[in-house]
Design a protein that fits this description.
P-loop_NTPase; 4-stranded antiparallel β-sheet; ATPase-coupled transmembrane transporter activity; Rossmann fold; ATP hydrolysis activity; 5-stranded parallel β-sheet; 6 helices; 24% strand; alpha/beta
Length: 211
């Protein structure tokens, strides 16, 4: 029987003040699927996202990645899984769009023509090539989310997890993000979207999980 990409078993998180979140969550996330994880604000969606990549330790329960305990697979997770935060500005650091996409590959030693070619190819795929010399602060909200995904793809990421990707976007921005998700699905990437605006995603999601 095939192994799910993620298997989550009875996940709980308790904070020092007694607050509880993620109360006994058990679920599976499958490679190649577009999974919508829905819940109201405060339901623990962002906490769950951070748990999937080891940024938050659960109080109880376990997470397995490709059959291995998460802590044993963190190197693989951090190469393959990328996060797009609700505030995309928080993860954009380059002075230009091209600089931002190049940051990750540069840090693993890519240089010269190989770097330029990779950045240009990713920017074309994400329809950002015409903005390559633009400061990221001048991008629209939808374009900033595309830029965050470009950085993930430039590092060879195969899984994109998006936290409230429609937050603070106008209608054109929402359309851009929906098209981005369609494009990722066409490329057979694994897409996990955490949002309380599930009506925007129902037509694209392969699975729906409600926290």
């Amino acid at each position: 029987m095939p192994e799910p990409m993620y298997r989550v078993e009875k996940l709980w998180k308790r904070f020092p003040d007694g607050t509880e979140a993620l109360k006994g969550i058990s679920l599976e996330l499958w490679e190649g699927a577009c999974t919508l994880i829905a819940g109201s604000n405060g339901s623990g969606k962002t906490l769950f996202m951070k748990s999937l990549v080891g940024l938050v330790e659960p109080t109880e329960g376990a997470i397995f990645y490709r059959g291995k305990p998460l802590q044993e697979a963190l190197g693989q997770v951090r190469q393959s899984v990328g996060l797009v935060f609700q505030d995309a500005d928080a993860q954009i650091i380059g002075e230009t769009v091209a600089d931002d996409v190049a940051f990750g590959p540069k840090n693993v030693g890519m240089r010269g023509k190989a770097l330029t070619d990779q950045v240009d190819e990713i920017l074309r795929r994400l329809e950002l090539y015409s903005k390559k010399d633009t400061p990221p602060r001048r991008l629209s909200g939808g374009e900033k989310r595309r830029l965050a995904v470009a950085g993930i793809l430039a590092m060879g990421g195969s899984t994109v997890i998006m936290d409230e990707p429609f937050a603070n976007l106008d209608y054109p921005g929402v359309v851009q993000v929906l098209q981005l998700i369609r494009d990722l699905k066409k490329e057979q990437k694994t897409v996990i979207v955490l949002t309380h605006e599930l009506e925007k995603m129902l037509g694209l999601a392969d699975r729906l999980i409600i926290l």
